[in-house]
Design a protein that fits this description.
The protein is of the alpha/beta class. The strands form two sheets. The chain has a six-stranded mixed β-sheet with strand order 2-1-3-5-6-4, with helices on both faces. Strands 9-8-7-10-11-12 form a six-stranded parallel β-sheet, sandwiched between helices. About 35% of the residues lie in helices and about 20% in strands. The longest helix is centred in the last third of the chain and has 16 residues. It starts with 7 loop residues before the first strand and ends with a helix. The structure holds NADP nicotinamide-adenine-dinucleotide phosphate.
Length: about 270
């Protein structure tokens, strides 16, 4: 990569950021498009987030991505929020337009694109999301509007109840499951918990309850034990790698106003995950 006197910076703010795959994906895209930009990860402890956001203006960054734990807490430091980010109440992308910082959320849309490209259509389907954290909220925002019915399950039920109440306001049918004893009737199941990040983690559901007609998705980037077990049961599976790719492609488009080179970004990601 060639750094010049005019190179502009896009960045990731998170804590920690050491595990991130975003730099390789975005730098491959900038390089391919001949854009004089580079993407850098910054480890930003929560107490320095305000100064880090100020630096976007001070150093004329193109924009940034945000990851755990900054997606919600960054909102008060921004000048404007896109409609969907406001509804989701979380921001994963900031665009710097001449010092004015606008927050967007590309996570949910990225997940929907990852389903679409594999021919999985949530319209008119019964969908279950396991987990009620930030990513569940982001994908739930789209799934609750698209699906026939959305069910949430979370180990702390109050959090699922509260998210269901928020998502119901989008007009969709959203309910909470007390347990995961019966999976019959669901067409699409999404694991939005960190269970599976480690191979020794418990499974988020009992694979014996899976029917081969169910599409099983995991937001974790690699092939989790859940996805392996679902495949063994004959289910179609979707990993979180597609969501990572598409949320990044949508952020790239917001920063550059250019059509993102998705296949270049995908190959860059695959080179890190194979
Ligand atoms: P989060 O806001 O911290 O929420 C985590 C959720 O998982 C909560 O509902 C939590 O339940 C539940 N949970 C945590 N540990 C659990 C356990 N041991 N057993 C059962 N439930 C547990 O996290 P997030 O941002 O939503 O992220 C969730 C997953 O999605 C992570 O693995 C992350 O890597 C992945 N992700 C992927 C992408 C992508 O681009 N592919 C993007 C974002 C996130 P409680 O409410 O009871 O604590």
């Amino acid at each position: 990569m060639r750094i010049t006197g005019k190179t502009r910076v896009a960045a990731l703010f998170g804590y920690p950021v050491e595990h991130t795959l975003s730099p390789v994906m975005h730098n491959a895209a900038f390089d391919h498009m001949g854009l004089d930009c580079c993407y850098l990860p910054f480890s930003v402890p929560p107490e320095t987030l305000r100064q880090a956001v100020e630096s976007i203006r001070a150093l004329s960054f193109v924009g940034v991505n945000l990851t755990i734990p900054h997606k919600e807490t960054v909102i008060p430091f921004l000048d404007a929020l896109d409609k969907e980010a406001a509804a989701i109440e979380a921001v994963n992308t900031i665009v710097n337009r001449e010092g004015r910082l606008t927050g967007y959320n590309t996570d949910g849309k990225g997940f929907m694109r990852s389903l679409e490209e594999l021919g999985v259509n949530a319209a008119g389907r019964n969908v279950l999301i396991i987990g009620a954290g930030g990513s569940s909220r982001a994908i739930g925002f789209y799934l609750s509007r698209e699906a026939k019915a959305l069910t949430l399950y979370n180990r702390s039920r109050e959090k699922a109840e509260s998210l269901a109440a928020d998502l119901s306001s989008t007009g969709g049918e959203v309910s909470v499951a007390a347990d995961l004893g019966h999976l019959r009737g669901f067409d699409i199941i999404v694991n939005a918990t960190p269970l599976g990040l480690k191979q020794c983690d418990l499974l988020p559901l009992d694979p014996d309850a899976l029917e081969p007609t169910i599409v099983v998705c995991d937001l974790i980037y690699h092939k989790t034990p859940l996805l392996s077990q679902a495949e063994a049961k004959g289910c179609k599976t979707v990993s979180g790698a597609g969501m990572l790719l598409w949320q990044g492609a949508l952020a790239f488009e917001l920063w550059t106003d250019r059509i993102p080179p998705v296949e270049i970004m995908r190959s860059a990601l695959l080179s890190q995950t194979d």
